[in-house]
Amino acid sequence: MVTYLDHAASAPMRDEAIEAMLPYLREQYANPSGSHRFARQARRAVDESRDRVAAVLGCRPNDVVFTGCGTESDNMAITGAIQRHGGVAVCPGAEHHAVLEVVEHHGGAVVGVDAAGRVDLDDLADQLDSINAAGRTVSIVSVMAVNNEVGSVNDLAAVRRVVRRHAPDALLHTDAVQAANWIDLREVTPHVDLLSLSAHKFGGPKGVGVLVENGGPRIDPLIIGGGQERERRSGTHNTAGIVAAAVALDLTDAERPGENVRLAALRDQLVDGLRATLDGVHETLARTDKVAGSAHVCIEGIESESLLYLLDEADVCASAASACASGAMEPSHVLAAMGVARERALGSLRMTLGHTSTPAEVERGIEVVTAAVTRLRDHAVRTGVLAGQVSS
Amino acid sequence: MKVMCAMSGGVDSSVAALLLLEAGHEVVGVTMKLWGGDSDTGCCSVSDVDDARRVAQQLGIDHLVFNFGDDFDTHVVDPYVAAHAAGVTPNPCIECNRTVKFARLAERADQLGFDAVATGHHANIGHADDGTLTLLRGDDPAKDQSYVVHMLDQTQLARTMFPVGGMHKSKVRELAAQIDLRTADKPDSQDVCFITSTGGRTSFLGDRIAFNRADVVDLDGTRLGAVESVEMVTIGQRKGIGLPGGGPKRYVVDVDTKARVVTVGADSDLLRVDLVVHSMAWVDGAVSGDVLVQASAHGATQRAVIEAVDGRPGAVSVIWAEPQRRIAPGQSVVFYDLTDRRVLGGGIAD
Lengths: 392, 350
Known about the structure:
Chain A is of the alpha/beta class. Chain A contains twelve helices and twelve strands. Chain A has two domains: 3-9 and 256-380, Alpha-Beta Complex (Aspartate Aminotransferase, domain 1), CATH 3.90.1150; 15-252, 3-Layer(aba) Sandwich (Aspartate Aminotransferase, domain 2), CATH 3.40.640.
């Protein structure tokens, strides 16, 4: 039995989404851009999926662009804005690399976050002012809706007010890749110009993303060619993936209120359970400051890499920070941006719950993490080698 | 046994993993992420990690990547840079073995319940009659790497394995080819993993330390020319020292980094009758007397008599049987027994 505590990395696909895909893999294989009846059937599936997604997001169907993934949506938003308008991109330092790397690549500005991982609105205002004072323009501000590592939630209405005041011509983008399971996106979309989603985070397939261009296109498309998606994103539609993504988003939206309650309880049980059996387990964020499924902790006296290995041996899936291209764990830039001390951050463990999480998984998680941490701490005591110390 | 096989992405460590599996051990492949900058030497770059991972998949073993970048920076790269600024020529691959591969990685292996760390080094571990462990040259003289792993002591040797040490390189490649390992024909990595072939040492160091001009003088003090960077000059160097072509061959016989003076002389002026080696690491306790000495990765050994230096713990004096060219300060000097097969220990030239 696999104990899957890594839903923020990817979620199991919903059965309904898989079922919905199959006809588009087997029989309905026409290219939706074609001119025959067969193609029109596939086209209709894409259009209806667009309607479903728009309904959940509270935006117009024509403002929904299907992309290849959340990262593509983020790239499209930021690079597309800079290509169209020039200027500077701004984002907080706790953004996912799919935003941070793009902003840094374009020589943009990085803003601070508070100890709870949320954008520092004063710092944002100051940065926007400095950019203007230097005679440059801010073309886009990107602030994520929910942080993938620690689960913090940004108040996008407040961000919008700051942007409107200090850089009124700038576009506001939100990476909402981690938000669909927890937040009613109808309450997010009105505050932003651009919004990214990623289907595999809410029980849809990998390889499908969404970019909402609220109020119509105001950025350059990233991928041009045949002109699909009203010339917003060329490339043959992934019909099966898009259909599945829409089904998954619909179900996620319907289940969200109940799941928020159910998963918050399981999450609390998981973290409380660990804190009952182990000393030195620090819950990174207060429960009121994060989404229901997020159980990020920092554990004293151990290194994440070693802990994850032992968890893996016991078929428990979790993660810590992000991996680099080689697959090695990099120290968490999110924790660093939040001001978490290096020694504390070395023992970080990210456990995240989702639509298939069960009480049995939580119990097993507590058992295995406790055993692994105890083993690592005992070893440290026996050998005198302290976790994370650069050995002398 | 449960063995952690360090996999660089090269053919030696790939075949090491294969041999461990064939011997019935439980094997997990590990690649260390050490250097975060550019790398094109065939060891540990992103594409090398890919090679290691795919080989592991082929062999059916788990593959992990451990990030030891901090240790590598602190114990290998930073000292390498500082040494050059001070006029010393270190061997970073040896320091990596000393502080990362057979220390940090070995500690991690121990922590996670492994019985040993295996690498693809061409070296052998044996037993002496009295039960102590011995460190021996690899069976392929052209590929022997005992010089770079000379620092292992009894405790470390007890938890280290060198599966390919008993074979010739050609046999290693043959075994790899037999099972269609993707790295069977991969060229051996030659150079330091954090120095690119395009930029070289000069570019790497130039980004990190000041380069100071130095005068090049002969043994009488007559000024012959100048070099742009005294930090890049090594004892024994003949080329690139700013001297006009033609004339007698001149070699760097001394480098005074502080005074910024490079002294050159004839080959014979490089000869020394002795040297002192410090920071000695012994395989099985200190040894004195007649030994064979190797002062470079694939250099020939020379006969000498070694003994402890009074008042300098960890140092030995080496008295050559016949005068030898001066060894650059910072180079590793390794002692072998008179059969030229067994490593006694090694240290760093003063």
